[in-house]
Amino acid sequence: MEGQMEAAEARELAWAGCIPAVFSLAQDEVTTLEPPPCYHANLPRQSWLPLVTGEVVEHFLPFAPPMARASSMWMQCRGEPLRWQVPVGVLFDLLTSGDDQPGNGDMLPWQLTVRFQARPTDQLRGSVDDAKALVRSALKESAFLRCGSAQPVMDLSPLDDARIFEALCSASPIEAGSPAPAPSSGGSPPPLPPPSCLPPASPVSSQAAAGQAASQQTPAGKQGQPSASDAPASSPYEVYCQARTPLEASLLRSLGSRGERAVPTRAFVAQREWRQLPVAPLLPSGDPTTLADALALLLPRAFAAASDAESSGGEGQRPTAIVQGVVVELNTPVSWLYEACSHPDGFLYVVCLMPQSQRTRG
Amino acid sequence: KVTVTFKHAGDAPILKRSTFKLSASTTIAMTADQLRKQLGIAPHEPLLLYCSTAFAPPLDETLGDVAQCF
């Protein structure tokens, strides 16, 4: 299609997306004379917090209360507990976006507070093994949605399984462990490299704008430091592709001559408000299902209200859809979006920002 | 309302009644809590729920969504 970026190119850009974050230990949990320095890290959008914050735990644990354990760590963003079950990029878009724009520029670096005590009772512990189990289960779930069977994921070889998590656990710390001024009043954090995020407000279907803007940004985390291991350095995306290829081939064999049953899609309005329903890749008319069609199915009340407002002459009432940190036009085919911007667990995550008029609910 | 049928696996206790009608807005976590009461499983003991014997749905997913998907 003219003017549309290739899905593979967009997928590589999505994998390069990182979020500069600053972690600080909650002041009421500091038990040493000197508070710990902040920890700076480049968090990959595609991964999950427990998989990329192991060094954060090691950094702060010595300063935490004596009974604190690594398994009891949880995090907050502006006082709101973070649900580690949600991918990093989706969390950032949910918690930092403004009225109808992703908050990429204004909210960087992402300020996160680390705690080891008084975890909310509805907040599950998030160890590395818990996160891996969640991702594996989600992979099976998305495979089931696509082809009616989780067998392609169950047939993954141990090597491919290890590759997936090697890719997900690859974070790119900015001078890992480098001390920074303590978060005291009047102090300002040290300058950080430019954010390695996808260009804001660039619809994915606009080839020229997204391609040019993305090429101007150098992903600080992607180049990073050379690997100290003997194996040749591969980017997380390349490692992931090595595992993904046999999985996709197995999925296609399961499908046979049939088309995919559904596009695994999750629409988030808030951390705890999300929907997942089977989204058919084609409409009954044979036209490709667009993002607007999918969101009308997943969030019927929001889109019904928008349609009513538009039909009565209102403007700007439609929710804004953000995928991988980029505002996406609602006429984008959802199949293309899935191929280009799905997460490693096989789901396409769409963050929906409600217009102001719909924010207050009865 | 969603009709849910539970099948025990491994060393899980057997339910006296295996089919229930639950509200579509009930989450997997709420379902697990109700099962714990039915089976007398303590909160610290693990209870795993699998859908179609294939995967564990997220705990905050509603039964209505799970039923429509699978």
TrEMBL record, chain A:
One of the entry's Gene Ontology molecular-function terms is: Atg8-family ligase activity
Major localization listed first in the record, in broad terms: membrane
InterPro entries membership: Atg5, ATG5_HBR, Atg5_HR, ATG5_UblA, Atg5_UblA_dom_sf, ATG5_UblB
What is the membrane topology listed in the Swiss-Prot or TrEMBL record? Peripheral membrane protein
- Similarity comment: family membership: Belongs to the ATG5 family.
Q: What does this protein do?
A: Involved in autophagic vesicle formation.
Name used for this protein in its record: Autophagy protein 5
Q: Which organism is it from?
A: Emiliania huxleyi (strain CCMP1516)
Automatic annotation (TrEMBL), chain B:
Subunit comment: Forms a conjugate with ATG5.
Q: List the molecular function annotations (GO) for this entry.
A: Atg8-family ligase activity
The name on file for this protein is Ubiquitin-like protein ATG12
InterPro entries linked: Atg12, Ubiquitin-like_domsf
Family of this protein:
Belongs to the ATG12 family.
Q: Per the record's keyword annotation, is Zinc included, yes or no?
A: no
**According to its record, what are the GO cellular component terms?**
Atg12-Atg5-Atg16 complex; autophagosome membrane; phagophore assembly site membrane
- Among its keywords, does the record have Cytoplasm? no
Q: Which GO terms describe its biological process?
A: autophagosome assembly; autophagosome maturation; autophagy of mitochondrion; glycophagy; piecemeal microautophagy of the nucleus
Q: Which domain of life is it from?
A: Eukaryota
Q: Which UniProt keywords apply?
A: Autophagy, Isopeptide bond, Ubl conjugation pathway
Signal peptide position in this chain? none
